[in-house]
C-alpha cells in the first residue's frame, strides 16, 4: 500500500474532484479521504473496491501491485484504431466533466 495515498490523490485530482466530492461518492467522510492520501489510514476492502470503480482502475493498481492503470473495459477484441477512438472520446468527456465541476462564476466572467 506504499503508493496508495499518492495514487488516490492523483486520480482524484485528474478527475477534477475534491476530497469532499470523492467522499460523497463512496460514502465516507472527507477526513477518511484525507487520511488515505496522507497514508494515515488504509481503506477496508469494500472501500478499496468502491475507489477502483469510481476511477475505473483495478484494485491492484491502487495497491501498487500494478504500475499501470488497467482499464476495466475489455478491449481485447477491438482494433488499435477503435481503442484510439475510445481514448479520444474519454479524454473529451474528462475535459467536459472538469469544466462542469469547476464552472466560472458569472462575476468572474464579467470581470474579464
Produce a short descriptive summary.
The chain has 112 residues and is mainly α.
Plain-language structure description:
Helices cover 63% and strands 0% of the residues. It is an all-alpha fold. The protein folds into two domains: 4-63, Orthogonal Bundle (434 Repressor (Amino-terminal Domain)), CATH 1.10.260; 80-111. Helix 2 (19-26) packs across helix 3 (30-37).
User: Span from first to last CA?
Assistant: 45 Å
CATH first level of the largest domain: Mainly Alpha
Helical content class: 55-70%
How many individual helices?
Answer: 7
Task: State the total count of DSSP E strands.
Answer: 0
Order of helices and strands: HHHHHHH
What fraction of residues sit in β-strands? under 5%
Q: Main sheet?
A: none
CATH-derived architecture of the largest domain: Orthogonal Bundle
